[in-house]
Design goal:
The protein is about 35% helix and about 25% strand. It has a single domain, classed as Dimeric alpha+beta barrel (Alpha-Beta Plaits, 2-Layer Sandwich). It is α+β, with helices and mostly antiparallel strands. Strands 2-3-1-4 form a four-stranded antiparallel beta sheet. The two termini are about 20 Å apart. Strand 2 and strand 3 form a beta hairpin. The chain contains three helices and four strands; from the N terminus they run E-H-E-E-H-H-E.
Length: about 100
């Protein structure tokens, strides 16, 4: 099942640049394990959208809590909702 997480953080937080390499490595590992569907920041406002593949909302919460952006003090809050994608234009997705 897919879950969309809308995550809040301040883009100007100096910890973002410091922790970003570990955060991206973590997301890459989730992608390899089939747990990450798509992710990316909201560049104008800060925050991000991350879509996970997981068995439950509790699993997603655990994945977010283990993210270096959470443990490193970047993520401030998040909302997780189950998500049922209907249309996907794969031609518009990044590699």
């Amino acid at each position: 099942m897919k879950f969309a997480a809308v995550i809040d953080y301040k883009a100007d937080n100096p910890k973002v640049a410091e922790v970003r390499p570990a955060h991206r490595k973590y997301l890459g590992e989730l992608k390899e394990k089939g747990k990450l569907v798509i992710s990316g920041p909201f560049p104008e406002t800060g925050g991000a959208l991350i879509v996970y593949e997981a068995a439950s909302k509790d699993e997603v919460e655990a994945l977010i809590k283990a993210d270096p952006f959470t443990t490193g003090g970047v993520f401030t809050s998040w909302v997780v909702r189950s998500w049922n994608p209907i249309f996907i234009n794969r031609d518009l997705l990044p590699d």
